[in-house]
Design goal:
5-stranded mixed β-sheet, alpha+beta, 4-stranded antiparallel β-sheet, about 400 residues, 20 strands, 12 helices
Length: about 400
Amino acid sequence: YFGTVLEHILLQNLCAFYDVGEHNEMRLHGADWNDALDMAWEKGESVAFTCAYAGNLRNIAKTLRQLEEISGSSKIEIAHEMEDLLAGSVELYEDAARKQALLAGYAKKCEHNISGDTIVVRLDQLAANLEGKADWMMKNIRANEWVKDGEDGWFNGYYDNHGRKEGVMDESVRMMLTGQVFAIMSGTATEDQVESICRSADKYLYDQKAGGYRLNTNFHEEKFDLGRMFGFAYGEKENGAVFSHMAVMYSNALYQRGFAKEGNKVLQALLDAAMEFDNSKMYPGLPEYFDNQGRGLYAYLTGAASWYMLTMITEVFGVKGDCGDLKIAPALMLEQYNQDGKAVLKMTFAGRIFEIIFYNKEKKEFDQLKIQKAACDGKALEITAERCTILSKREIQMLSVKETHKIEIELV
């Protein structure tokens, strides 16, 4: 039996939905994104990645609905055994033991081989099923994982191998950036919670001398019921350093949710730290992390660099694909324009070369701007919102692949 790409994506995400610990969050196993959280195999749970997978399920559902709209196809076939994973009962979702049993039963059915039989599933029903699961996960996290700090707060990120909540273990502040990043990026955090997280991160994690936002506060213990990261001195590597990868993802998440000024602060802090040679002791670039003194270590981390470039292009300049269309929604800060109030991005999209020029001639701040006019090679483009314009897939296909095409956007 050869499965489709869609079946594999569904399997990866649906199995994770049922693979939960006693607090009904996804099991940590030997790590999530962070391979140094590797010592909580029995009872460890990752609230951070439960957020991430909730976001995945929503995105898959959105894509399924787009697939139906674009292709005209309303049904797909999936392996018969996968039907178990599409259970849609809230009573089941709330019972961690039943979810574990369902996953074990599914795995038993698939031992050695599967039947090869398939079932037909309607795309709209499948999308609704995934959305129901995502909504439940987010609601559960908001209800049970929010750590209060006066009027502010943040999300608990993990449970250790004793089943204890990392975020509220004692009287000291225990905040980890990872749990905030995926809560914000996935949409789990409400807008008010994002604002609260930003204030808390500025209060407890931001250290300008070290290069920006630390990965966690000081736990003041060698916490080997969660991971070997706590064997590092505080401020080194995953234990409280300014870890470039997660810092950039924090910025990206903030931009995605409309918090452009806060996102820019993260990116600028990393840039300033890297360019301050007296502290960074490295050629300009993005290291794996900055230590307590702001020294850059492991001089180039490709994951963080990729996320930095992605964030600059798709969020700061606001240029991204949307079902074949080129969507442009800039979030440039005033200081990111040159003295003439101009910012330029050169890139390739759909095999065409574009020079995209943004004009802020009146030199206004980001939140005071809206798109007044947009054109590609002199031809007017549709403006769909105050700060958004679109070059359609059809229009792109009509453009030459050999020439550079100029898109000009005037903001006032």
